[in-house]
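HUMAN: Forgive my ignorance: could you write out one protein's sequence and C-alpha coordinates?

ASSISTANT:
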Amino acid sequence: MNTIDLTPLYRSSVGFDRLASMLDNALRGDTGTGGYPPYNIEATSENRYTITIAVAGFTDNELDIQVERGVLTVRGKKAAEDKDRNYLYQGIAARSFERKFNLAEHVEVTDAELKNGLLNIYLVKEIPEAMKARSIAIKNTDALEYKK
Protein backbone atom coordinates (compact mmCIF):
# COMPACT_ATOMS: atom_id res chain seq x y z
CA MET A 1 0.00 0.00 0.00
CA ASN A 2 1.21 3.50 -0.75
CA THR A 3 1.96 5.87 2.08
CA ILE A 4 1.83 9.62 2.00
CA ASP A 5 4.38 11.69 3.89
CA LEU A 6 2.48 14.50 5.60
CA THR A 7 5.62 16.11 7.06
CA PRO A 8 5.48 19.15 4.72
CA LEU A 9 1.91 19.78 5.87
CA TYR A 10 3.00 19.85 9.51
CA ARG A 11 5.93 22.20 8.80
CA SER A 12 3.79 24.93 7.27
CA SER A 13 0.41 24.68 8.97
CA VAL A 14 -1.15 24.60 12.39
CA GLY A 15 -4.37 22.92 13.47
CA PHE A 16 -4.68 20.35 10.68
CA ASP A 17 -4.19 17.33 12.94
CA ARG A 18 -7.76 16.15 12.35
CA LEU A 19 -7.32 16.38 8.58
CA ALA A 20 -4.16 14.29 8.72
CA SER A 21 -5.90 11.72 10.89
CA MET A 22 -8.82 11.50 8.44
CA LEU A 23 -6.41 11.01 5.53
CA ASP A 24 -4.53 8.33 7.41
CA ASN A 25 -7.75 6.44 8.26
CA ALA A 26 -9.01 6.70 4.68
CA LEU A 27 -5.75 5.35 3.29
CA ARG A 28 -5.76 2.44 5.73
CA GLY A 29 -9.33 1.61 4.77
CA ASP A 30 -10.40 1.90 8.41
CA THR A 31 -14.18 1.49 8.17
CA GLY A 32 -14.79 0.13 11.63
CA THR A 33 -17.70 -2.23 10.92
CA GLY A 34 -16.87 -3.12 7.35
CA GLY A 35 -19.83 -2.55 5.09
CA TYR A 36 -22.55 -2.99 7.72
CA PRO A 37 -24.94 -1.31 7.69
CA PRO A 38 -24.92 0.06 4.14
CA TYR A 39 -25.42 3.81 3.74
CA ASN A 40 -25.73 6.66 1.21
CA ILE A 41 -24.52 10.25 1.47
CA GLU A 42 -26.46 12.68 -0.70
CA ALA A 43 -26.06 16.39 -1.42
CA THR A 44 -29.65 17.62 -1.59
CA SER A 45 -28.69 21.24 -2.29
CA GLU A 46 -25.60 23.43 -2.12
CA ASN A 47 -25.41 23.40 1.69
CA ARG A 48 -27.72 20.50 2.64
CA TYR A 49 -26.89 16.82 2.93
CA THR A 50 -28.67 13.60 3.87
CA ILE A 51 -27.08 10.44 5.22
CA THR A 52 -29.34 7.41 4.75
CA ILE A 53 -28.48 4.23 6.64
CA ALA A 54 -30.24 0.89 6.03
CA VAL A 55 -31.29 -0.23 9.52
CA ALA A 56 -33.95 -2.84 8.71
CA GLY A 57 -35.23 -4.52 11.85
CA PHE A 58 -34.15 -1.74 14.23
CA THR A 59 -36.61 0.48 16.08
CA ASP A 60 -35.94 4.09 16.99
CA ASN A 61 -35.36 3.00 20.60
CA GLU A 62 -32.52 0.72 19.48
CA LEU A 63 -30.70 3.51 17.61
CA ASP A 64 -28.52 6.27 19.04
CA ILE A 65 -27.18 9.33 17.19
CA GLN A 66 -24.52 11.57 18.73
CA VAL A 67 -22.28 14.39 17.49
CA GLU A 68 -19.07 15.14 19.34
CA ARG A 69 -16.11 17.22 18.15
CA GLY A 70 -17.05 17.04 14.49
CA VAL A 71 -17.76 13.31 14.44
CA LEU A 72 -21.28 11.97 13.88
CA THR A 73 -21.69 8.54 15.47
CA VAL A 74 -24.67 6.28 14.78
CA ARG A 75 -25.06 3.18 16.95
CA GLY A 76 -27.56 0.38 16.75
CA LYS A 77 -28.04 -2.17 19.52
CA LYS A 78 -30.71 -4.81 19.14
CA ALA A 79 -32.87 -5.60 22.13
CA ALA A 80 -32.69 -9.15 23.43
CA GLU A 81 -34.16 -11.63 20.94
CA ASP A 82 -37.11 -13.78 21.84
CA LYS A 83 -35.56 -17.13 22.85
CA ASP A 84 -38.71 -19.04 21.80
CA ARG A 85 -38.08 -18.30 18.11
CA ASN A 86 -36.71 -21.17 16.06
CA TYR A 87 -35.18 -19.79 12.87
CA LEU A 88 -34.69 -22.18 9.96
CA TYR A 89 -32.72 -19.41 8.23
CA GLN A 90 -31.89 -15.95 9.57
CA GLY A 91 -30.72 -13.67 6.75
CA ILE A 92 -31.73 -10.36 8.32
CA ALA A 93 -28.76 -9.03 10.24
CA ALA A 94 -29.60 -8.28 13.84
CA ARG A 95 -26.12 -7.45 15.03
CA SER A 96 -25.12 -4.27 16.78
CA PHE A 97 -23.19 -1.66 14.83
CA GLU A 98 -21.39 1.64 15.14
CA ARG A 99 -20.84 3.88 12.11
CA LYS A 100 -18.87 7.16 12.27
CA PHE A 101 -18.86 10.11 9.87
CA ASN A 102 -16.39 13.01 10.03
CA LEU A 103 -18.21 16.30 9.59
CA ALA A 104 -16.66 19.34 7.95
CA GLU A 105 -16.51 22.60 9.87
CA HIS A 106 -19.87 24.31 10.32
CA VAL A 107 -21.87 21.19 9.34
CA GLU A 108 -24.65 20.58 11.85
CA VAL A 109 -27.17 17.76 12.21
CA THR A 110 -30.64 19.28 11.96
CA ASP A 111 -32.96 16.28 12.13
CA ALA A 112 -33.27 12.50 11.87
CA GLU A 113 -36.13 10.19 10.94
CA LEU A 114 -36.69 6.44 10.70
CA LYS A 115 -38.97 5.39 7.86
CA ASN A 116 -39.36 2.04 6.07
CA GLY A 117 -36.16 0.63 7.59
CA LEU A 118 -34.07 3.64 6.52
CA LEU A 119 -32.58 6.10 8.99
CA ASN A 120 -32.30 9.54 7.37
CA ILE A 121 -30.01 12.05 9.05
CA TYR A 122 -30.28 15.61 7.75
CA LEU A 123 -27.32 17.98 7.84
CA VAL A 124 -26.79 21.60 6.87
CA LYS A 125 -23.62 23.62 6.39
CA GLU A 126 -24.07 27.09 7.85
CA ILE A 127 -21.08 29.34 7.37
CA PRO A 128 -21.01 32.21 9.90
CA GLU A 129 -21.37 35.72 8.44
CA ALA A 130 -17.88 36.64 9.62
CA MET A 131 -16.42 33.85 7.47
CA LYS A 132 -18.41 34.51 4.30
CA ALA A 133 -16.70 36.22 1.38
CA ARG A 134 -17.25 39.95 1.24
CA SER A 135 -16.35 42.62 -1.25
CA ILE A 136 -13.77 45.27 -0.35
CA ALA A 137 -14.15 48.69 -1.92
CA ILE A 138 -11.05 49.97 -3.70
CA LYS A 139 -10.28 53.65 -3.29
CA ASN A 140 -8.80 55.46 -6.25
CA THR A 141 -6.18 57.74 -4.72
CA ASP A 142 -4.74 58.72 -8.13
CA ALA A 143 -7.70 61.01 -8.78
CA LEU A 144 -6.99 62.92 -5.57
CA GLU A 145 -3.29 63.44 -6.41
CA TYR A 146 -3.96 65.06 -9.81
CA LYS A 147 -6.20 67.72 -8.25
CA LYS A 148 -3.40 69.06 -6.04
Remarks:
- The chain has two domains: 1-30, 37-146.
- The radius of gyration is 24 Å.
